[in-house]
Specification:
The chain folds into two domains: 201 residues, no CATH class; 156 residues, no CATH class. The protein contains twelve helices and twelve strands. Helix 1 packs across helix 10 and helix 10 packs antiparallel against helix 11.
């Protein structure tokens, strides 16, 4: 039995010889054949990275829009079972003095009924042109520092903090603009004949006493976004909404906060520490994402991995066939090399190195295309889906893992055919039997 040092020496020598044979064979092979194999590996790599990245990007795009258009990095809302954030004035003072808070937007919120037709009464067999909706009151100037809410105004203009009696209304509440206008959904009543310039009547039931508070507004603009919290809400200024509230006018129902993304978790802890026993729900933007979107993200990840597995199988079969045909056509040469003393391990190493060359070349080209072309392109030109602007989600760590998987599969696919050919009898290989 050979000693370990001697065995290692033989393998090192075999690797050196295999390297020489592999480099010589790659140089002497057809450039078009080599380019085609590398091209296949590039497509395989892109299938591994880009397909799954785009599937995840569909949901990640909605996460990004939720943060940019609604929540900021941290959002504070009323606790379950509560109508407002307790100690809201104190929290506002705390945020104003916090060094890591760049800006924040306190918002009022209540629910009410919007009547879209004020000039005529419905017939006896008709339902009134009205619907219930969540109504938010915000400070336009503070909101602009936290979110890009103003960019969601697709018709008309943005609210002005110095004006009173104007509102913005979500597109999905209006029959003219809603994506569900042509769907016959029982119980879904959309406002008809309401557009920019229309006068509507808002009715809010006061808490406790049940008193109806009524105020008329002029629709100043239509807001449309792929974030439901925008497209299915009505927005007025904070001062106007306070006039519709009968109690707790000094308390807010929601506060969106802008800070460094890396500090979001720490800011949540700071706010919870300040609030103490006061009831409020403080979450990062990611934590505030609805659970069904997280479930979709998980499903997309599984689907992306399944498609990537198919690509890996195709790549392994391709490499197996290439190496096998290459070895079969050079079976006589392999027999002669074994006859003159070149070890079978050296021959196997030569084909393994060729397989690794194809895998690495395809991966490097794929990395350049992914991070140099595709990722910037989809960032600047997101895919327009009904529920999000799809982007390409890919990280250096994730790409490195996929490169390692591709190289591993390539090594296995290159080793098997080389092993099958090299193990044949030397004389049979030389004579072509």
């Amino acid at each position: 039995m050979k000693s370990l040092p001697k065995l290692l020496k033989e393998y090192v020598f075999g690797f050196r010889v295999g390297w020489f044979l592999a480099v010589r064979q790659i140089r002497r092979s057809s450039k078009w054949t080599t380019a085609l194999i590398i091209f296949i590996m590039v497509l395989t790599f892109l299938n591994l990275v880009v397909v799954s990245g785009l599937l995840l990007g569909l949901i990640s795009g909605s996460f990004e829009q939720f943060r940019e258009s609604h929540s900021g990095e941290v959002i504070v809302t009323s606790a379950p079972g509560r109508d407002y954030i307790e100690n809201s004035p104190g929290l506002v003072s705390f945020l104003e003095s916090h060094s890591q808070v760049k800006a924040f937007s306190p918002r009022y919120q209540t629910s009410g009924t919007i009547l879209g037709t004020l000039t005529s009464l419905p017939r006896s067999n008709e339902r009134p042109n009205q619907m219930g909706a969540a109504i938010k009151g915000l400070d336009p100037e503070k909101e602009a520092l936290v979110t890009n809410f103003a960019s969601s105004v697709t018709q008309g203009g943005m609210l002005d903090g110095d004006e009173s009696g104007y509102m913005l209304i979500g597109a999905n509440l209006l029959k003219k603009y809603s994506s569900f206008a042509d769907a016959n959904i029982p119980g879904l009543d959309l406002l008809a004949d309401v557009d920019v310039g229309s006068r509507v009547r808002v009715t809010v039931t006061s808490k406790g006493g049940g008193t109806l508070i009524v105020k008329e507004f002029i629709v100043k603009g239509i807001v449309k976004s792929k974030v439901d919290e925008i497209s299915t809400r009505v927005f007025v200024t904070g001062a106007d909404l306070k006039s519709l509230l009968s109690i707790n006018k000094e308390h807010f129902q929601e506060i969106a906060i802008r800070t460094e993304p890396s500090y979001a978790e720490a800011l949540v802890a700071d706010i919870n520490g300040f609030m103490g026993s006061s009831a409020a729900r403080t979450q990062t933007s990611l934590d505030a994402i609805p659970q069904f979107l997280r479930d979709i993200e998980s499903t997309m990840g599984v689907l992306g991995n399944a498609l990537s597995s198919i690509a890996l199988v195709v790549a392994s079969i391709t490499i197996f066939i290439v190496i096998y045909i290459n070895a079969v056509t050079k079976r006589k040469l392999i027999g002669i090399m074994k006859g003159v003393g070149i070890s079978p391990a050296a021959v196997q190493f030569s084909y393994l190195i060729q397989a690794i060359f194809y895998g690495l070349s395809g991966s490097l080209v794929g990395l350049l295309l992914t991070f140099g072309v595709l990722e910037p392109y989809f960032k600047n030109n997101p895919i327009d889906f009904p529920f999000s602007d799809g982007i390409l989600v890919v990280t250096p760590a994730g790409a490195a893992i996929r490169v390692a998987i591709l190289i591993f599969v390539t090594i296995i696919a290159g080793y098997l055919p080389a092993k099958l050919i090299v193990r044949k009898n030397t004389l049979d290989s030389i004579l072509g039997r």
